[in-house]
Amino acid sequence: MPIRINAFLIMTLVLSLAANLAAAAPPDDVRQALGKLRDFVGAGDNGQRWHKYLRTSELEAQLKQGDAADPEVVAGVIAQYRSGAGGLDQPQFQAVRAALEKWQAELLMPTREELAEFAAKQQDQFRPKTEADVQAAARQVQQAKTSLARFVGPGRNGAAWRTYLGWEALERELAAEQPDMAQLEQVVGRLTADVAGLELPQFTRLRNALRRYIDTQQVATNPKVREAFEEQIQVLAEALREYETNPNREAAQQIAGRVGWFERMDQAPVLVEAVRRYYSHPNFYGYASEGLLKAAMQRPIARTTNITDNFQGTRIVGTGRTSGNTVIELVPNEEKISFDILFYGHTISNTRGYN
Questions:
Q1: Mind listing the pLDDT tens digit for each residue in 22-77?
Q2: In what order do the strands lie in the sheet with 314-330?
Q3: Cα(50)–Cα(48) distance, integer angstroms
Q4: Number of C-alpha atoms within 13 angstroms, CB side, residue 112?
Q5: Among 28, 37, 82, 118, fewest CB within 10 Å belongs to which?
Q6: What pLDDT is stored for residue 19 in this prediction?
Q7: Which phi and psi (to 5°) does residue 285 adopt?
Q8: What is the pLDDT of residue 59?
Q9: Predicted local confidence at residue 12, as pLDDT
């Protein structure tokens, strides 16, 4: 029986333009996310309290206005979703918030000619973080950490991963009232190293959650972040002016660096979206035939590995030999190159248990 692994080689294709044009409009995204939130909170007293707090009736009135919606009212609704109230870190609320911010970006979107001046006017738009924001980010780290611990397991392999990542230091700093950011940065550094396995989602979820937690802590507790925000806005506005009249690598690097900083610190989302819309373009178009992929990836497999495990207190050791062939099959996809890697084969293991 074949083992199917879906793999995606993500490349920017001409077809992606048509896919983007066919995507749902931002107000439709808000309606869909809001509908799922209604199902989640229900129609009872609890649901009614949530809708009152989140100003849902005002939001629905603005949705009816379409492109004529009042950006200030939409911003007020977003502020409620960003307030850090208990429960707002649930995915149903986060989905509405993300859709609202996307819609807000459309409502406020400057033209390319207005972009530099629009950037300069964002200096007073710094978004502070509260203790509730920090706690919400910490919960995401704990969830990702629990998921990773379950994934690597309690055996020798799991112990090796925990040692490599600095698990004890991670748990100690997450439990501390004033965590040492340098220690947490070291864990992030290990999670981003070129080590086989770190690309798996269980590891990347922890890496991303920990990165958000560190940045949220910085914004919430470091008063210099506001000053840095204003400086970054000024640098970005100047770089945008220069790049518009004289495109060059130095200005492009300044723009890219500032946009990355704003995104990390969860600041200036409309500005970030505008810069990417006008200046982020496909710079590679490629075609790959089925024959090329098969020549590169289709091959026989014959591999012997040592087996060491622990099952309900019984230590298991031995060897396993896997034999078979990989087969590549292209999958129709209008957005990206997509293919299945099929493995046809068998594994024979010879193990013994010790108590």
A1: 345 788 999 999 999 999 999 999 999 999 999 999 999 999 998 899 999 999 99
A2: 3-9, 337-354, 314-330, 300-311
A3: 5
A4: 8
A5: 28
A6: 37
A7: -125, 125
A8: 95
A9: 32
C-beta of residue 55 within 8 angstroms of C-beta of residue 77: yes
322 in helix, strand or coil?
A: strand
Q: How far is CA 47 from the centre of its chain?
A: 28
212, 133 Cβ separation under 8 angstroms = no
Alpha carbon distance 327, 2 (integer Å): 10
320, β-bridge pairs: 305, 349
298/324 Cα distance (integer angstroms): 11
Q: What is the pLDDT of residue 311?
A: 78
Q: Any idea what DSSP says for residue 177?
A: S
Q: What is the separation of C-alpha 14 from the centre of its chain, rounded to a whole number of angstroms?
A: 25
Q: How far apart are alpha carbons 138 and 213 in whole angstroms?
A: 6
- Give the torsion sign (CA, 91, 278, 122, 106): negative
Nearest to 331 by CA among 321, 339, 319: 339
Taking the C-alpha atoms of 29, 32, 35 and 40 in order, what is their torsion angle to the nearest 10 degrees? -90
The pLDDT, as a whole number, for residue 147 is: 94
> Quick one: pLDDT at residue 333?
81
List the one residue out of 106, 107, 51 whose CA is nearest residue 80: 51
Q: Which residues of the chain have pLDDT under 70?
A: 1-24
CB neighbourhood size of 279 (10 A) = 17
Query: 185: part of which helix (H) or strand (E)?
Result: helix 181-191
Q: Please classify residue 204 by burial: count the beta carbons closer than 10 Å to its beta carbon, then call 0-12 exposed, 13-18 middle and 19+ buried.
A: middle
What are 343's two structure tokens? 């493995």
Predicted confidence at residue 249, as pLDDT, reads 93
- The span from the CA of 217 to the CA of 47, in Å, is 31
> Tell me, what's the pLDDT at 21?
35
Find the helix packing angle between 249-264 and 269-279, rounded to 10°: 150
Structure confidence at residue 331 (pLDDT): 86
- Residue 178's contacts (CB-CB under 8 Å, 6 or more residues apart) are none
pLDDT (0 to 100) of residue 190: 96
Helices (H), 246-268: 249-264
Paired tokens of 277: 């819309």
